[in-house]
Known about the structure:
mainly alpha
Amino acid sequence: MTGVIEQATVGRRGGVRALWAGNPWAVVQRGLIAARSSSWVVVLSGFFEPVFYLASMGIGLGALIGTVQTSGGAEVSYAAFIAPALLAVSAMNGAIYDSTWNVFFKLNYGKLYEGMLATSLGPLDVALGEILYALLRGLVYAAGFMVIMQIWGLNLAWTAILALPAVLLIAFGFASLGMAVTSYMKTFQHMDWINFVLLPMFLFSATLYPITVYPEWVQGIVMAFPLWHGVELIRGFTTGVLSPDMGWHILYYVVMIAVGLVFTTKRMRALFLD
């Protein structure tokens, strides 16, 4: 009997089974059960925020601006220009807040991950489970916002339906990287750096005006932002102006996801299993 226990312990400490038990949905299920007791007003606020931005700036300010030229050369209304950008921002914010503040509390105060990793779950199960839960929430927001865009006539091509999987890709990228960064934070004061990074990305990632208004050296900096790649990807789908560059935007997020998952898994293993 002792030999069996020792063998299981060795298997838990090393190898693939120490990282992955193949059951991230257990973490997702736990999140859905916990969400039942949450305030739905807080949940719904994440949906209405981009809608209010679109109504005030896209329709109100758009009446003064008129049309705007996208990076693909298409002339679209100002509302149709910023709507896909707001969709990308919504995906970013939803993923970041779910994978940072919620994860920070569970990691440092709720001690939930310590309990999860005491079971058969591995660090990769926990990381993927938390990220998948954030993606489910982001998908609900994105689908609702896409309906609003359709009602207001801001989806200019049938390819707009592809914006939904693009939103999931964007959310996946930010969630995985956000969780990786959060695993190194120790105090609530460290979390202030998240808004310090998110706000410039929201303002300067060609969300409210074309990137061509910047000098070329500033454009290079903006193109390094992950949000810019998401905005351009979704804007291409909603306007129907597709280009080979969209493949680079997708690759950017694939790399972002891989880096985030690797760092999150290693960090959680170092915190709880080593």
